[in-house]
Design goal:
Layout lengths: L1 H8 L5 H22 L8 E3 L4 H6 E3 L6 E3 L10 H13 L6 H22 L3 E3 H21 L2 H5 L8
Parallel strand pairs: 1-4
Antiparallel strand pairs: 2-3
Helix pairs in contact: 1-2, 2-4, 4-5, 4-6, 5-6
């Protein structure tokens, strides 16, 4: 829904304010979901096996070889908005950012969150979370490329939008 709001206001004078509001809201929700809503534990926990939580979330059904998702929260994709908000912020500032840079920034944001959870004992450092959030950033970047016209992505915004 936020992506639709930003898409609809893109060429309007209210776009910078809408972008700022969406970014501020996203940062608050991200901090709340990953740090502020948790109580510290006495032990630092970590899981470094790739896709361990994803394997546990998927269950093979014995009938017809189907796969069922048992824990959909594994795929919550907290970093998907990074993939489309970061290019919009850069574009609003009159600059461009490449797709690989967006993915690296999403990976860095996710790594910072995971390390903060580990150091503060406010969650578990999981390689899965980092991998899935990085993939979510890539998905957000693809959504940005799909929903915003190429001419909008290639040129800076007019002065009235800065």
């Amino acid at each position: 829904t936020t992506l639709v709001l930003l898409r609809r206001t893109y060429r309007k004078p209210c776009f910078p304010a809408a972008l700022w509001a969406v970014c501020a809201g996203y940062i608050f929700l991200l901090l709340y979901a990953t740090l502020l809503s948790r109580t510290p534990s006495d032990v630092r926990m970590y899981r470094l096996e790739p896709f361990a939580s994803l394997k546990g979330a998927l269950e093979m059904a014995e009938d017809a070889g189907t796969i069922r998702l048992q824990a959909p929260q594994v795929l919550e994709g907290l970093c998907v908005p990074v993939g489309y908000l970061l290019p919009l912020v850069f574009l609003q500032r009159g600059k461009r950012i490449r797709f690989w840079q967006v993915i690296c920034a999403g990976a860095a944001v996710s790594a910072i969150i995971e390390l903060t959870q580990f150091v503060t004992c406010l969650g578990m450092l999981e390689l899965d979370d980092w991998l899935l959030n990085t993939m979510g950033t890539a998905l957000g970047g693809l959504l940005y490329r799909k929903l915003f016209p190429r001419d909008a992505r290639e040129c800076a915004l007019p002065a009235m939008y800065r």
